[in-house]
Amino acid sequence: MSKLSPNSLPAPAFDDPKHHLRIYQGDCLEILAQIPESSVDLVFADPPYFLSNGGITCHAGRMVSVNKGDWDKSRGPGANHEFNRAWLAACQRVLKPNGSLWVSGTAHVIHSVGFAMQQLGFKLLNDISWVKPNPPPNLSCRYFTHSTETIIWAAKNSKSRHTFHYKLMKEINRGKQMKSVWEIRPPEPWEKKFGKHPTQKPVALLERILLASSNEGDLVLDPFSGSGTTVLAAFRLDRHALGCELSAEFLRLSLRRICSNLVQVDLSLTCVEFSLDPFPDPMDRSSSAHSPAVILSEAKNLSVLCVSAQTAIREGRTFSRMSPQLQLVQQERRFYFIGRSDRRVIFTVLAESLDEARQKFRASGRSDSDALFIIKTETEIYLA
Ligand SMILES: C[S@@+](CC[C@H](N)C(=O)[O-])C[C@H]1O[C@@H](n2cnc3c(N)ncnc32)[C@H](O)[C@@H]1O
After folding, report:
1. Residue 8 domain-assigned?
2. Could you point out which of 60, 175, 306, 370 has its C-alpha 20 to 30 Å from the C-alpha of 2?
3. Which atom of ligand 1 is nearest to the CA of 71?
4. Pocket of ligand 1 from Cβ distances under 6 Å
5. DSSP state of 132
């Protein structure tokens, strides 16, 4: 990560220098102390809410404990406030002069956060009400149904000239000025397919925040990165990112989420190149629009072919039925091994089965643990 001096920091638990993404395992206060002053463009923080104190809530129609984990237990209002002040001050130190910070929270924590921001001289810009459609019902029937979280947006100090992409927000809001009330659904099932974090934020929420207040190439910091939502959103929007997380379990979850996205990007650079000679009569070539050599240098083309092939198979159709002229010119089953330490394709092989591919992987001198993911692709290329 070019904007940080790597020597002063401990080894990151996740490092992708190509996309400038890094996550450290540890206490954010200790890690933030090692980050150079005025080096970060934007902070998003989703700190402990201090609400895991034996309450109940409703999940999927059932009564469940509200406890999220030890990290979310209250230490009493005074100690909670001191903690909020400490990490907010640490974030303020690393923010660039025009940088800004967003903090999400419920009533359990957000008033302390707002007060600490005022004490530290942040400039309050907005308090966003994030409205969750279809919130769980209130089981006690003694309160209104909790359906919002507050997200405070503040600039480093009163002199800051913060970034705000007003026009883009208006465009996203169908031409009307965007209000400070945002209705955004909780994380979708695809966001939880690698595992669950009890307080995971939706990618859509982070994407709106990053689009509103940062530029491509900016460095975004999340001191409580949890399942890595901020780092993932930063990657998707070409921002650089730095996360801190205490828990090894949540780190592993972030890694699975982020790597699956990295793999998609790396595979999209795969080049498939082959020659064919479909016309037995050389005279055909001069009069035909077909080229005798097919080169697919962008996987976008390749995936379009694959997807349509799979759809056809699922629907019980065959290409020959769709168009009798189609000629199968290339068919292969390929396995990609994505490295555990450097998230790239470290080995690729054609094989009939996963077992055969793994044998070949081992035969190449690697051990099973060198790979984090194995991706199988089946390619059929037809001459249209
Ligand atoms: C509210 S959650 C963040 C969830 C995250 N926004 C997401 O979308 O997954 C807070 C996270 O901070 C972590 N945490 C708590 N105290 C911390 C500390 N002092 N330093 C770093 N991480 C901490 C917890 O383990 C938890 O995963």
Report:
1. no
2. 370
3. 15
4. 27-28, 46, 48, 71, 197, 199-201, 224, 226-227, 229, 244-247, 250
5. -
